[in-house]
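Teaching assistant here, posting this on the class forum so everyone can see the example we discussed in section. The complex has two components, and the goal was to see what a joint structure prediction looks like when all of them are supplied at once.
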Amino acid sequence: MSAPLTAGVASGTELPEQVYRVTRADLVRYAGASGDFNPIHWSDRVATGVGLPGVIAHGMFTMALAGRAVTAWSGDPAALVEYQVRFGRPVVVPDDEEGTEVTVRGTVAALLDDGRARVDLAVTSGGEKVLSLARAVVRLP
Amino acid sequence: MTLDRELVGRSYPPSPVYEVGRAKIAEFAAAIGADDPVHRDAVAARAAGHPDVIAPPTFAIVVTLEAATAVLTDPDVSLDYSRVVHGEQRFTHHRPIRAGDRLVATTTIEAVRSVAGNDLLTTRVDLATEDGEPVCSATSMLVARGAA
């Protein structure tokens, strides 16, 4: 968590980069919490059977992590009023202690009406972009 | 297999009420590593101006995923689910979802497209309280990959 934002947010302001580690255990926990038990998120047998390289993270889990990077910056989860992503490439999560990493960078792309800002996100794993058109609209304090 | 364009605009009956619980919000927040106390501590949430603990922004998927099965089980919607992946997701929050909310979901098919042999199905789920206060709109685009 960070201190709430004060004045000084401008177009081009960069959010602190966040790196999140993702392991199989995280996917199991997310499956239970979200109710999405699609076996491609926990079974290598099923994942490879449908042509994936292995078990992949829920797209919605990756979206949630990227959302954390925005709320960590804004200091207020209620301030994220619009949020959209396109799932470009799957996040493959190996069955080991290290798992993989998801890196989230963000930039204030525009200041909007009513004290809101649009934040554009760049979300990568293993050096590849995993989300595209990832955008959040945040109400500034 | 191509989706019928006549499906666009089709709406499904409102879902049964989903009652949002504090424990479910805390469980979801823990699963995504969201450690802000407003997700698990009602006192902290009230101090931040909310009537009770609030859900992280993507929590709405817990409610909308279930509601969207109305579309997926519609016999007129012929998708090969073994080839379906989540293409896009968008949330518009009118206010945060919070513990104690009694939410009703209304699902509508927004768009049907065919691109490069893939079927694209866009559905919108509107969440409102039982009393009709709008809370969140969630738009999901599913891609059914055409046979390679």
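For the discussion questions: Chain A has a mean pLDDT of 94. Chain A has one domain: 14-139. Think about how each of these relates to the inputs above.
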